[in-house]
C-alpha cells in the first residue's frame, strides 16, 4: 500500500494559517485516498483519523535537515512526502515523491525592503527559509500554494513551470459561521484586527493610523488586535501605545479559542487587515463568514482573496488607512454592501471548492 507521509511537527502546535492549512489538507486527503497517511511528529500525539509516528524530540532545524531525511530513506518510489511549512530538507536521500507547500515568499524579502521582527525566532526563521528554499524548491516533484498570486510569484522567482505548481486555496472553519440573531450593536464597539507581530503584518502603521482617526470615531471605537504573542513584541507595541497616549483604547490579545475569536469577529464594527504582503489571508475569510465589514490593503494577494468584499487602502499610507476605517464606520450603506459582497465572495472558498482542489491533487499522487 502506498504511504503518504507528512511533517506534522507544527500541525497541532499552532492556530496560525500554515497549521490550519495542513490539518485541513491531510484530513481531506484521508477522506479521498486509499493510501495510508502517516504524520511524522517530534512530540507524542494521540490525534484520531491519521496515524502519527513519533521520531524523537529535537529542535526544528535538526528535525527537518537530519531526522526527517534519515527516516525517509526507507520510503519507496510510490510513497509521498509532504513538507507543509515553506521549507524542506536540503538533501533528499529518499525515493518518495516530494511535495513542497509554499504559502508565500515573504521570507525572500531583504531586511532593507521588509524590516526585522521584534522576535528573534521569527528573524532566524526568515533567514533559514531564505537560505533553504532556493536550494530545495526545484527538487520538489510538485509544489502546492494557496493563491494565484503566490503561484505566479513562485514561478517567476524560481523559474519553475506553472503546471508544476498547484493552487489549493484555504477554506474557513465552519465554526466561524455567523450565529443567527447575534446583534453586534450591543456592548463595547471596536475595530478588530487579526495578525501577528511579523513586520509584514504592519501593526505599527495600524496603531499609528488609529491615532489619526477623528476624535469622535476614536472615542467611540476601541482597537482590538489579536495575535501578538511574543513578549518582545508585546513590550514594543505597548510602549508605542503608551507613547501615543492610547492606553485603554488599544487592546493586545495573544491567543484565544476559535469560539472566542468568532465572537470577536461577530461583534466587531469592522475588520481591518493592513498587511504589506500575504500568501492568502485566512482572517479575511473568517471576517466574511462572521458577516463583518472589511477594509484591507490593496497589495499582494489580498484583492484576489477579498474581491468586492473589502474597501481597499494603501498600507504604506497611515492617513489612507485611517480614512478608509473612518469611511466604513461612518457609511452604513457601504458597510452593508461589503457584508453582502463578503457572503458572495466566500462561495469561492467554501468547503466544496477546497475539497475539489484536494481531490484533483489526490489524482496526481
TrEMBL record:
Superkingdom of the organism of origin: Bacteria
SUPFAM superfamilies reported in the protein's UniProt record: UDP-Glycosyltransferase/glycogen phosphorylase (SSF53756)
Keywords carried by this UniProt record: Transferase
Domain Glycosyl transferase family: 186-343
Positions of the Glycosyltransferase subfamily 4-like N-terminal domain: 94-174
GO MF annotations, alphabetized: glycosyltransferase activity
One of the Pfam families matching this protein, by short name: Glyco_transf_4
One biological process term in Gene Ontology: lipopolysaccharide biosynthetic process
InterPro entries with a match to the protein in the record: Glyco_trans_1, Glyco_trans_4-like_N
Alphabetical list of PANTHER family matching this protein: GLYCOSYLTRANSFERASE WBBK-RELATED (PTHR46401:SF2)
Name recorded for this polypeptide: Glycosyltransferase involved in cell wall biosynthesis
Species: Arcticibacter pallidicorallinus
Amino acid at each position: 500500500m502506498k504511504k503518504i507521509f507528512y511533517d506534522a511537527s507544527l500541525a497541532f502546535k499552532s492556530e496560525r494559517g500554515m497549521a490550519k492549512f495542513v490539518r485541513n489538507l491531510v484530513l481531506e486527503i484521508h477522506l479521498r485516498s486509499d493510501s495510508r497517511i502517516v504524520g511524522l511528529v517530534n512530540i507524542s500525539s494521540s490525534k484520531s483519523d491519521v496515524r502519527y509516528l513519533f521520531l524523537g524530540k529535537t529542535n526544528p532545524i535538526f528535525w527537518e535537515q537530519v531526522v526527517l531525511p534519515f527516516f525517509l530513506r526507507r520510503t519507496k518510489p510510490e510513497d509521498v512526502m509532504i513538507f507543509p511549512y515553506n521549507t524542506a530538507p536540503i538533501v533528499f536521500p529518499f525515493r518518495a515523491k516530494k511535495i513542497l507547500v509554499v504559502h508565500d515568499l515573504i521570507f525572500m524579502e531583504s531586511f532593507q525592503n521588509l524590516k526585522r521582527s521584534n522576535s528573534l525566532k521569527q528573524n532566524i526563521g526568515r533567514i533559514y527559509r531564505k537560505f533553504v528554499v532556493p536550494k530545495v524548491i526545484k527538487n520538489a516533484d510538485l509544489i502546492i500554494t494557496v493563491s494565484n498570486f503566490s503561484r505566479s510569484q513562485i514561478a517567476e522567482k524560481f523559474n519553475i513551470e506553472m503546471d508544476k505548481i498547484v493552487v489549493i486555496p484555504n477554506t474557513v472553519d465552519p465554526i466561524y459561521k455567523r450565529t443567527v440573531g447575534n446583534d453586534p450593536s450591543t456592548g463595547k464597539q471596536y475595530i478588530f484586527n487579526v495578525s501577528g507581530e511579523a513586520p509584514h503584518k504592519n501593526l505599527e502603521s495600524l496603531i499609528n493610523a488609529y491615532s489619526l482617526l477623528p476624535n469622535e470615531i476614536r472615542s467611540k471605537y476601541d482597537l482590538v488586535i489579536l495575535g501578538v504573542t511574543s513578549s518582545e513584541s508585546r513590550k514594543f507595541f505597548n510602549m508605542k501605545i503608551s507613547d501615543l497616549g492610547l492606553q485603554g483604547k488599544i487592546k493586545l490579545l495573544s491567543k484565544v479559542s476559535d469560539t472566542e475569536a468568532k465572537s470577536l469577529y461577530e461583534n466587531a464594527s469592522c475588520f481591518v487587515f493592513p498587511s504589506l504582503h500575504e500568501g492568502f489571508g485566512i482572517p479575511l475569510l473568517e471576517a466574511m463568514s462572521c458577516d463583518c465589514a472589511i477594509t484591507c490593503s490593496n497589495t499582494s494577494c489580498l484583492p484576489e482573496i477579498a474581491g468586492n468584499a473589502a474597501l481597499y487602502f494603501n498600507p504604506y499610507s497611515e492617513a489612507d488607512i485611517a480614512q478608509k476605517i473612518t469611511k466604513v464606520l461612518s457609511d452604513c450603506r457601504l458597510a452593508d454592501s461589503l457584508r453582502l459582497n463578503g457572503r458572495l465572495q466566500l462561495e469561492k472558498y467554501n468547503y466544496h471548492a477546497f475539497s475539489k482542489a484536494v481531490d484533483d491533487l489526490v489524482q496526481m499522487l
